[in-house]
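Human: My hope is that you can spare some time for a protein that puzzles me. I am handing you a single protein, as its sequence and its fold in token form. Could you go through the record with me and say what the backbone is doing? Take your time, and here it is.
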Amino acid sequence: MKETVRSVDGQGSRRIDLAYVKLASSEMARDINRDIVLELIRANQPVGRAELARLSGLQPSTVSAIVEQLLEEGWITEGAAAKRPRGRRPTMLTLNAELVILVADLRPGQAILAVVDLNGRFLSRESVPLASDAERATIKIAEALDAMRRQHPDKRVEGVGISVPGRVNPETQRIILAPNLHWADFDVKKTLMERLNLQVELENAANACLLSELWFGRMDGVRNAVLITVSEGVGSAILANGQILAGRSGLAGEFGHIPIDPNGPVCGCGQRGCWETFASSKAALRYYEELEPEHPATRIQDLLKLGEEGNPKALAALERQARALGRGLRLVTSALSPEVVLVIGDITSSWTRIAPIVEEEMAATMLAGTPPRLAAASDGELARLRGAAALVLQRHSGYYRSTHGARERPRNTVNA
């Protein structure tokens, strides 16, 4: 029997779109509606049951049943009754402020760690240096996350979300491609789960950033988009017909490792002239060193500061990076025809200077029509961390589990 799954496009909430007709079991439909109600509570809290029924289009009895389930699972809490001039006073619902997620954004040489609540608020955040050895680094991350957990004894931890500068196999949750990290042969998830006794979820950094933009309601109504992360490398995530694409083994969207010049520099993936060797932060630093070999900049933040101060060589290096970024986006727009291209990374701190250059290059060879809208997304570091938190929320939600299967969870965690 074909069942209809409702879609919501309310004010401040993320549109939920299956993007294709499919036969759904009653359990799947119920789980999707559960996730819709949870997101509506997040976007409109404090909110009553009757308002949720109006916003979702679901029957009041269905909303009441879902609310009871969410209360039992600990995702939401009931507050005071709202004052009304007449009639019954509804009990208001909010996300559970006591439920938090441990998150980590992995980078070459360091990790940014945080404790995030269900509203995306940061309760604590810190940076830890990492050894190049994957096992030593993962143990360091586990110890630091455990210390952060102990700092919040009044909170309940739902799980751990990890943003990775590489590709993660969605089935095995193993890193299979991370040219700038070199951890592909080590099981990060298993080590963290054993040491923290919490469910751990890994995802590519670009996908995590895109999930953050979707989860926290900044892309309502957008069905086709590409998000580009610019850091040590160049990553990308694809939203097509309302769905984040993973592809076979989670490798969809590796535009950063498409060679655009066979005579270019050697990339971390082993090929020559990949897009990221021209458009990444490392590339910008290399351009500046070529112009200023006696006093090279060692961090992209230093180069950006020089640019803001009007240093002509720094400005030339950043312009060269911007033009390379725009030329690579020609390939992206031709292949995917997105409505929006979002860029995240340190480069966006000089976006008013960088954006026109990128737009000019991107629009130079449009096959037809107008180029997609180009925009800087929210703070890259925060987006990766919030995306890692949203990853845990998504994978512990009903719809994800009904379509992907429940993952084995440590015994002392909340079985949402």
Q: What stands out?
A: The CA atoms of residues 292 and 313 lie 7 Å apart.
